[in-house]
């Protein structure tokens, strides 16, 4: 769907092809390589909509994770696979990072907030990403910029909870009983939710040969 803020050009900013949203909607951003996308991505997106009280979830399909040595399959292939897999009226797929020329999440969020000042973004991630979040570029800036929703992932609960980011920002952790108001919190704010877990990963699918580059 095309950009719904025709005035973007008039503000002197770039116009992007982004999903439609109404002002003040709470939008969860699930950044990922999606190499390939799988049922776990759909599952945590549905859980995030419910548990964090979100209006939409956007899958931000990354041109390439800056921390991963090997590049993923071509973006067009991953975008097409995401669109085929996810059939949900409130979950949308976007190649915003390729459009904006950003690869690091801190830059992506700054560009998105500039492009969509009326939206309330929440960054989403599986517990494995919280465990290594302190290795991300400008991760404290990300913490200051948007609330963060973390979803349980098999084998990752303890490493996430003991991670440097979790310990340093313990003061900003929202109790999981209050998860539905996460998107209304002033950052820094983050919340870990114990959702039913799905033991599936892109790595496993690639190893099984279910996805070729
Ligand atoms: N089964 C799952 N349970 C919880 N979170 C998940 C699951 N699968 C993916 N995620 C989360 O979704 C986001 C995007 O994941 P990504 O596209 O890297 O898939 P992946 O299965 O983790 O891939 P890979 O195995 O190649 O690392 C990340 O925040 C990741 O933590
Ligand atoms: O900004 C960073 O330094 C950074 C480092 C590692 C991962 N990320 C982002 O985290 C998201 C999940 O990555 P991945 O490869 O685990 O799917 C994806 O949007 C990446 O761009 C971002």
Automatic annotation (TrEMBL):
<dbReference type="InterPro" id="IPR004821">
    <property type="entry name" value="Cyt_trans-like"/>
</dbReference>
<dbReference type="GO" id="GO:0005524">
    <property type="term" value="F:ATP binding"/>
</dbReference>
<keyword id="KW-0067">ATP-binding</keyword>
<comment type="similarity">
    <text>Belongs to the NadD family.</text>
</comment>
<dbReference type="GO" id="GO:0009435">
    <property type="term" value="P:NAD+ biosynthetic process"/>
</dbReference>
<protein>
    <recommendedName>
        <fullName>Probable nicotinate-nucleotide adenylyltransferase</fullName>
        <ecNumber>2.7.7.18</ecNumber>
    </recommendedName>
</protein>
<keyword id="KW-0547">Nucleotide-binding</keyword>
<comment type="function">
    <text>Catalyzes the reversible adenylation of nicotinate mononucleotide (NaMN) to nicotinic acid adenine dinucleotide (NaAD).</text>
</comment>
<keyword id="KW-0808">Transferase</keyword>
<keyword id="KW-0548">Nucleotidyltransferase</keyword>
<dbReference type="InterPro" id="IPR014729">
    <property type="entry name" value="Rossmann-like_a/b/a_fold"/>
</dbReference>
<keyword id="KW-0662">Pyridine nucleotide biosynthesis</keyword>
<comment type="pathway">
    <text>Cofactor biosynthesis; NAD(+) biosynthesis; deamido-NAD(+) from nicotinate D-ribonucleotide: step 1/1.</text>
</comment>
<dbReference type="Pfam" id="PF01467">
    <property type="entry name" value="CTP_transf_like"/>
</dbReference>
<keyword id="KW-0520">NAD</keyword>
<dbReference type="GO" id="GO:0004515">
    <property type="term" value="F:nicotinate-nucleotide adenylyltransferase activity"/>
</dbReference>
<dbReference type="InterPro" id="IPR005248">
    <property type="entry name" value="NadD/NMNAT"/>
</dbReference>
<feature type="domain" description="Cytidyltransferase-like">
    <location>
        <begin position="29"/>
        <end position="207"/>
    </location>
</feature>
